[in-house]
Amino acid sequence: MSTIQKIILDNRPQGVATVDNFKLIETPVPVLKDDEVLIRHHYLSLDPYMRGRMNDSKSYAQPQALGEVMIGGTVGEVIQSLHAKFKTGDHVVVMGGWQTQSVVHGDTPGAIRKVDTTHVPLSYYLGAVGMPGVTAWYGLVRIMEPKAGETVTVSAASGAVGSALGALAKSRGCRVVGIAGGKDKCDYVVNELGFDACVDYKQHKDYLSLSKALRDACPNGIDAHFENVGGMVLDAVMIRTNAFGRIAVCGMIAGYDGAPLPMTHPSLILVNRLKVQGFIVSEHMEDWPAALTELSQLVTNGKLKPRETIAQGLSNAPEAFLGLLKGKNFGKQLVKLI
Amino acid sequence: MSTIQKIILDNRPQGVATVDNFKLIETPVPVLKDDEVLIRHHYLSLDPYMRGRMNDSKSYAQPQALGEVMIGGTVGEVIQSLHAKFKTGDHVVVMGGWQTQSVVHGDTPGAIRKVDTTHVPLSYYLGAVGMPGVTAWYGLVRIMEPKAGETVTVSAASGAVGSALGALAKSRGCRVVGIAGGKDKCDYVVNELGFDACVDYKQHKDYLSLSKALRDACPNGIDAHFENVGGMVLDAVMIRTNAFGRIAVCGMIAGYDGAPLPMTHPSLILVNRLKVQGFIVSEHMEDWPAALTELSQLVTNGKLKPRETIAQGLSNAPEAFLGLLKGKNFGKQLVKLI
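YS: structure for the whole thing
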């Protein structure tokens, strides 16, 4: 392992992203400096936000630099350490990027975190007990503020964020209804994740049709919604919101490629006195400890059973990522690197 | 004055509202029952929300009933009273509707309120020191939560809500930028109302052009916005919002007639982590006393100089109302009934 395999952003997408935007390269493993740690990655996380970074446009974050390793969350083990707090064999979470190994300074705030794999599998720290889980927690607790008995909906319900959202909302006494694509995912959402119902958006050609299905699944209307998708799903949900509904906006995956997706009926924000609020979980680090504690307990108690789709090997990361953008994954999308 | 002139909703608009939707009728003045009060209206308030009520569709309020007097806020004087708290000559605010006189029960909560016209002209209780003023106060204080030094924008800036919003935001140390239609209104917003700048949306054919003008008027971006209009104005403002911007949604006047107006870039809610929240001021009666006190002081101290457009006589109310929907009024639209 004297070299590191890396995937860099070679060129920016013109419209739809393709595998040709990426390039696999190999570089020598650097010699560690004082207080640095070398990590061998076991898993790389693939997430929709990466698509936004591939564009050279204004967003909440800097664009991914051309020619640099694609950013991404990773879990792995320490294989060399010049920092007193870390030793060989430690399991850690780092923003290691699309590569087989990475070097971090052990004192950089938030850059490296040791994790306990006694009750929680290592890969879960990229999903249910990691950034996606905390994302669900923040949207639910800080924006949706659900009360027991209320109806809560979430799009991309079978995914890492959606499944965590469901478990967190169920534990607060809510009726939880998922929205997902396909019968398999909907069955999983209800039978494995314990949602009260799940609506298959692929059965509906437009938002009005989807909205009718939501009416049947949510006979008391929708009090709070977690949006991972945008477009037709959000349009359909908005029609079913109750007065004073809250919508946490976490993702607009359908709009990353191509033309902007409008919101069809923004006047519903007024008519139903909605609060629609966007957020980025990395801006709320103060909430992470409480969120991770609750998520870890839900996993340990079997209340949250995340599902993973695992691609094998770094060279398959681009294709797995493009599949994720099209909803081909089922649960948290990972790439296994060892 | 043995009869009351009334304007009823005769039929519902098919698309654009017309004067033919209304009908003027005359009925006898009823004999008062115990604790009732008869009020002669001096002014009727015309407001955009009335257009929504004319449709037979789901909204935050019941539709205006066909054949009934159009609802509306009025100010006037008591001309007969069988209630101990009210005497002839008292100035009062009542939801009297589009008619020359009305009868209210003196004990109905919120139905009738005595006002002091020593420092505040009677008609202002329908504008700056009435529902529109409180609307501005609620949106600003409860949703926009401005900090000194922040940039605040408001559409329909020369209107009753907009002018109050400007004065309230200035008194909190904000940079206040209006959006209004036409040079006269923009000059008034800056020179009379004391806004820092005003952008004439009629000079711009689309939201991208308007957005560039907003960039010049708001060099530090937009931290909080009060939306009275919707459509192109909201699209343009959203592009200029800063991270964690707050948008209070009070009106979507441009969408009342005809087709729904989409929001072009809802993904900005995520990118800029916006909070977009709709509200109806009548649902927050607990805030009215504090709001009215502050608004009354601003008027008394000359910090808020509202402008009024006054139509003469009840029979002209429909035409004045249709003009209001097209932005023909300049300041608070009233109908003088005496």
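YS: worth flagging: Chain B has nine helices and 15 strands.
IM: good catch. Also Chain B has a mean pLDDT of 94.
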